[in-house]
Amino acid sequence: MSESMEHPFAPFVRILGKGQKGSRGLTEQEAYQAMGMLLDGQVEDTQLGAFLMLLRFKEETPEELAGFTRAVRERVTAPAIAVDLDWPAYAGKRRQLPWFMLAAKALANNGIRILMHGGGRHTAGRMYAEDVLDALAIRSCASWDEVATHVDSDNIAFIPLAVWMPRLQRMIDLRNTLGLRSPVHSLARLLNPLAARCGLQSIFHPGYQLVHQQANVILGDHALVIKGDGGEIEVRPEVTDQLLGATDGHAWSEEWPAQIGRQVKAPTLEIERLMAVWQGIEQDLYGENAILATMALALRGLGREREEAFSEAAKMWANRH
Q1: Which pLDDT score is estimated for 258?
Q2: Do 215 and 264 have their domain in common?
Q3: CA 44/CA 7 separation, integer angstroms
Q4: CATH number of 201's domain
């Protein structure tokens, strides 16, 4: 490219970064085009860093997230694999153990088909889904064909983002270089690469839940959005929370009351404790209530009413083995 010619991606950086009066958010179509260029490797590294940090500073809009998601989905090369739940697991846990992993495994053992995907162990001091996969006999797959095999045999499979969308994984990995989480951490929750019947999404930061709900409305997706513990899809049983839904282009919400009183932070995150509860050797008030509520959330997403979902979750948990 001639030095006198502007790079094709430069207009997208300029839209976001033209000062307090001149800058604006991207339209859905602009976001779609920009993400397409990012995923196709048509952007310089300096532009990538600038684009991600300008978005992070501004905070993403529903239209931007919807456009980004459409661009990603067009580039997913998976075969048709029927799944009930899309379960992104990107945040990692630091306050409590990853009880959501036991909820997912129990649902799978009761016939619910789940795709779980994550973005690696990007922050020290957290326990990630990847840390628990082997203990729960959940396969981390190296291809979509492996996913198809293990969803059919086990009703659950995990696939790293790096396997099916490596350029997005690279953006996540820039966290330690840029010093901030990129918008990809938020975007990853929306991707639902296999078009599952229901997408489960957890966004911890205040205000972002509504943004995600509206992005799902724009996309026409059926999804549930919560403020899960630590940013993972794990209902916090000690607080009353809002469940935000999107179905057939419409937004809805309902209140989920607290199940137990406030609990202290777990002193250590030990997988042995998690597995002892899974095996029925030990009990944990917080953990078991989080598991049941998270299972009920998933069943709510699959059409059960709230009370029915909790009742069915209890039966499934008892029948988890």
Answers
A1: 94
A2: yes
A3: 9
A4: 3.40.1030.10
